[in-house]
Amino acid sequence: MVQVEEFEDRSAAKESSASRGWPGVVAVAIGTFTVVTSEMLPVGLLTPMGGALKVSEGVAGLTLTITGLVAAVSSPLLTSALGRFDRRVVLCALMTVLLIGNLGAAWAPNFGVMIAARVLVGIGMGGVWAIAAGIAVRLVPPKSVGPATSLVFSGIAVASVLGIPAGAYIGALAGWRAAFVAVGGLALLVILAMAVLLPKLPAEGSVQLGGVMKLFGNPQVRTGLIVVACLVTGHFAAYTYVRPVLEDVSGAGAGMIGTLLLVYGIAGVAGNFISGAGAGRSPRKTLLVITVVMAVTVLLLPFVGGSLWVAGALMAVWGLTYGGVSVSTQTWILASSPDAREGASSLFVGVFNGAIALGALLGGQAADASGITSAMWVGGGFALAALVATAVGRAPASGRL
C-alpha cells in the first residue's frame, strides 16, 4: 500500500513538473534577461550616474567591473552553500537579492552605497545564472531540452538588444535612478512568476565546493572552460571598444552606431537559437564554426569596415556568432558533466564573468598603448586561441543533456 502511494506521489510530481515545464522555462528565461540587464545597466547610464555621485565616468564604470567580479567569485560558492535547498526557493531568494541591489542602486546617495548595491546585484546574478543554466533539463522532456536551454539563454541575447537600450531610454526620460527602479520592478515580477510557474525542484544532491573544484580534472569540462575564457575575453576586448572603432574606421555618427548595435543584437538572438540546435548535435563542430567566423569578422573590421554597409554586415555576422557562444559552451559543459550539472554551471558562470572583466581590461590597455583598433587584434587573437582549444581539446561526443 505504501509503495503504491509512493508511486502515485512520484507520478503526480512528474505530471506537475511537465504541466509547468515550458511556462517555468519562460520564467527562468525572463530571469536571465533580468540579471544580465541588471549587470549591464550602467553602460548606458555612466554619465548621469557619475555626475550625481560626483565621480568620473571611468570610476563610475567600476560599477560594471565589480558586479562581474563578484558574480565570478560568488557563483561556485553559492552553488555549494545552497546545495541542499529546493531550486525554486533558491532562485526566488537570489532574485530577491537582485531586487534589493537594484533598489539600493536607485537610492544610492553616494558612490560607496552604489558599490555595495552592485555587490548585491553580482551575488544575485552569479547564483541565478549558475542554477538557471541546468534547470531546463529538469523541466521538459529529453527531446525538448535543447530548445528549452536555448530559450533560457535567449534572455542573455535579448538583454543586449532590449534591456540595455530600454534602461538608457528610461534614464533619459525619467532619470537614471528610475532605470534601476524599473529593473527592480521586473525582478519582483520574475520572483512571483518563478514562485507560481516553477514546480518544486529538490536539490539533486549536495554540491561541495571541493567537488566543484575537482571538475577541473575532467578534461572535457576543462577544455570547455578554456574555450569560454578565450572566446569571452576576446569578445569583450573588442566589443567594449566597438563604438570608437566604428566612429574611427567607418565614420559612423551616434544615430548610426545605435542602428549598428541593434543589428548586432538582433543577429545575436537568432544566433542563440541556431547555435543551440547545432550544439545539441555536436558542440565541437558548432564552436569550430563560431570561433573561425568570429576571429575573421573581428580582424577584418578595421580593414574593410570603412563602408557603413560592410561594417553593418560584419556587425550582423559578429552578433550571429557571439549570440551562440553562451548556449554552445554551456551545452558543452553540461554534456561533459551530466552528474554534476550545477557545479559545472557555477564554474562556467565564474569563468564567463571573469573573462568579461579581463577582456575589457586587456582591450583598454591595448587601445591606450597602440590605438583603438588594436583592441580588435586582441579580440581576434583570443578567438583564434579558442579555435585551437576547440579543435585539439577533449569534447563530449554530442550535446545531448
UniProtKB/TrEMBL annotation:
Subcellular location: Cell membrane
Highest taxon, organism lineage: Bacteria
Transmembrane segments: 21-38, 58-78, 90-109, 115-139, 151-172, 178-198, 223-242, 254-274, 286-309, 315-335, 347-366, 372-392
Listed Pfam families: MFS_1
Predominant cellular place of this UniProt entry's protein: membrane
Keywords: Cell membrane, Membrane, Transmembrane, Transmembrane helix
Topology in membrane: Multi-pass membrane protein
InterPro entries: MFS, MFS_dom, MFS_Efflux_Transporters, MFS_trans_sf
Domain Major facilitator superfamily (MFS) profile: 24-398
Signal sequence coordinates: none
Protein name (database record): MFS transporter
Gene source species: Streptomyces catenulae
